[in-house]
Amino acid sequence: MPTNPSIARIWRGRTRRDIADSYEQYLRAEGIPPLEKTALGVQLLREDLDEETWFTTISYWSDMQAMTAFTKAEPTKVHHLDRDPELLIELPQRVEIHRVLVDRYGMR
Questions:
Q1: Which residues pair with 60 in a beta bridge?
Q2: Do the beta carbons of residue 62 and residue 5 sit within 8 Å?
Q3: Which InterPro entries does this UniProt record tie to the protein (predicted)?
Q4: Domain map of the chain by residue range?
Q5: H or E segment to which residue 44 belongs
Q6: Which of 26-35, 69-78, 96-105 has the highest mean pLDDT?
Q7: Of 6, 54, 78, 93, which is most buried by a Cβ count within 10 Å?
Q8: Cα separation, 22 vs 103, whole angstroms
Q9: What is the pTM of this model?
Q10: Whether the Cβ atoms of residue 58 and residue 10 lie closer than 8 Å to each other
Q11: Band (1; pLDDT cuts 50, 70, 90)
């Protein structure tokens, strides 16, 4: 029986618009696969603005223990990818941890 997520971990970072496609490929290759193997689910979102592009990664977890086991440390600590310092406008200082209150998909 599938486990419903009770925790969402949200990371946000921004890059220059001219390298956004490269950063997206990098995230898809390096950032998303470990989450796909461990989290209950993962989403990668992209918002293109005039000068910069924001990326948001949301991973879903059964509980804090599962998320802490994945991060191998404090779950609110940001774990930067190797190339983040060169590709991001600034390194994010935090991730958000939210309790999942409603978990429904689809249109009615």
A1: 8, 41
A2: yes
A3: Dimeric_a/b-barrel (IPR011008)
A4: 7-99
A5: strand 41-48
A6: 26-35
A7: 6
A8: 32
A9: 0.89
A10: yes
A11: very low
- With a CB cutoff of 8 Å and minimum separation 6, the contacts of 45 are 55, 56, 57, 58
At position 43, the amino acid (one-letter code) is Q
Q: How far lies 102's CA from each of 38, 53, 105, in Å?
A: 21, 28, 10
Task: Encode pLDDT of 36-61 as tens digits.
Answer: 999 999 999 999 999 999 999 999 99
User: For the chain, what percentages of helix, strand and coil (3-state, to nearest 5) are there?
Assistant: 30, 30, 40
Q: What is the DSSP string of 25-36?
A: HHIIIIIHHHHH
Tell me: the pLDDT tens digits for 88-102? 999 999 999 999 988
Beta-sheet pairing, 41-48 with 52-61: antiparallel
CATH number of 7-99: 3.30.70.100
Residue with tokens 């774990």: 79
